Amino acid sequence: MSASCEPDGPGLSQQKTWISDNLSPTQSNYFRGFPTRREIVADVRHMRSLVSYARSVFWTVGLVDVLLGVYLAIRSFGTHSPKARPHAAEFMLAIGLATVALGVLSCFAAMAFRHRNRFSKPLIAMNSLVTLLLFPFGTVAGGVGLYWCFSPKMREAEPLVEDFEHQPRPGDGTHRWTQKAAPVLGIVIWLGSFAGAAWWGRAHGLPTRAAINGLPLLFLCEWIAVFLHELGHAVAGWASDMQLASFLVGPFLAQKRAGRWKFEFRLAGLLNTGGAVATVPLHLKRLRGRMAFEVAGGPIASLVTAAVAFLVLLMMPGSAYAAWWKVPAVVGAISAGATVLNLIPFRFAAGVSDGALLVQLFRGGQFADLRAAMKMVGSTTVTSTRPRDLNSQALADGLRAGAGTPEEGTLQIIQLICALDRGELVQARKHLEASLERIPAPEKAPNVGCAAELAFYMAYLDGDAGRAGEWLRGAEELAAARKLTLAKDSDYWRALTAVREAEGQRGQAEAAYQQANQLLGKKPTTGLYQFERELLETVHKGGWVRRQDGALSEASI
């Protein structure tokens, strides 16, 4: 993902791709990917994500253990009978109390990541050892917890509190009580759904050991349920004149980049039990209503999936496929739970629920302004709409609404691009300087592409190679440090063309221009890419260069 120069957000170099990935925040519940050890050491942001992930797993495991322990303790009082085994009640009560104790330990360990004292490390270490046994999510969280105990650098990485201690803001569709109730309610819904499916199987004499069981069953059914949920978003988007840009389910990702579909299998995504869909609008009429329809498509699809799975389950007893009864049972349970949980307005690690998005869009206000502005920009990537054709007031409203969010940097650059396309160079310069206040040096950029694109706009708006050249060198050093290649990054070659042209090195500028032109030629003929081609031609002609004059005016470029 690319286009935000927000330090904690995606990079800017391929703004087109970031827009496609992020304009339709219809994510269902999913776990974050897990960086490699080299990335953990190199990037504090990854460490923060891992600590936050471990903290959320500890909370979830703690709540489940407490509820399960209370259930076992209550059940123990019903086991006193002549036919019961000796001390069965006492044994079940002891198991229940021990489970409650483990749950409390897990909750305290989750709090210890933030509220540190001399007991934090022992609490996290003990709970991590227990959690390691809960493969796969608990194993990862336990490993992170142990690494946190022995790594001072890891302990310096504060968890992402905004993800797991979200403070509701007016108009965001969430409430402090739903934030507290949603995790517990979610656990109750999932456990109740699975218990109901298991009871139905026993009542109808279906085999306890079915054709598929355990974790393989859980992952398979979760992916099926998530796929159909995300398909509901995609179909609803298609019906409301949205073009699909990316589709993620578990480890499988299909993404449209520069007009071409690319398919990826991410090994770390095997631990991902959720998905996401991103779309861009083909026109801007009734945009908010269409966005709401698209968001609602997910929960509706989950409801339909639960109903169909239940009908299939009814036909299983006595059929040739009875050994597979757990598949429709678990898919139905997951989908029924997802229908209810997704409609509750709350925030979670991946974003906000479908219910919160619907509240935002129907209520209006700053969050609706922000999401509509981002969707509106997406139309330039798939239609002939130019950046200059966008509603400048709507973009300004979205920028104000996005203040302090990861989208703020993206919207600043979008404003810069729109101003350039309209020929408002002084206004574009203001947007550039606002972006540079957020990222004062190349090494502060979230990725190499962001640094390279900022170098291009510096060169173009300054008219000389001064700080643009420094930023370009910084981008190259950043790429070398992270072992990344810039060979196929059109934004890098555009920046190199502008800097070399401003330095008077026409031969190198010509070579960079040919490379940039070739890469841009492979991209679709839409409004945004047409703007980039025209801007590259302007740079290639060299008339915009001003090597001596330091003053910026409308006529100087």
Polypeptide structure, described:
The chain has 557 residues and is mainly alpha-helical. It has 22 helices and 6 strands. The chain has helices at residues 15-22, 37-42, 44-76, 88-112, 120-131, 137-150, 152-156, 161-164, 176-203, 214-239, 287-314, 326-343, 354-363, 366-378, 392-401, 407-422, 425-438, 448-462, 466-481, 490-503, 506-521, 527-541, and strands at 242-249, 252-257, 260-265, 275-281, 347-348, 351-352. The radius of gyration is 27 Å and the shape is globular. Residues 1-43 and 547-557 have low confidence and may be disordered.
Task: Explain the layout of strands and helices.
Layout: H1 15-22, H2 37-42, H3 44-76, H4 88-112, H5 120-131, H6 137-150, H7 152-156, H8 161-164, H9 176-203, H10 214-239, E1 242-249, E2 252-257, E3 260-265, E4 275-281, H11 287-314, H12 326-343, E5 347-348, E6 351-352, H13 354-363, H14 366-378, H15 392-401, H16 407-422, H17 425-438, H18 448-462, H19 466-481, H20 490-503, H21 506-521, H22 527-541
Antiparallel strand pairs: 1-2, 1-4, 2-3, 5-6
Helix pairs in contact: 1-14, 3-4, 3-6, 4-5, 5-6, 9-12, 10-11, 10-12, 11-12, 11-13, 14-15, 15-16, 16-17, 17-18, 18-19, 18-20, 20-21, 21-22
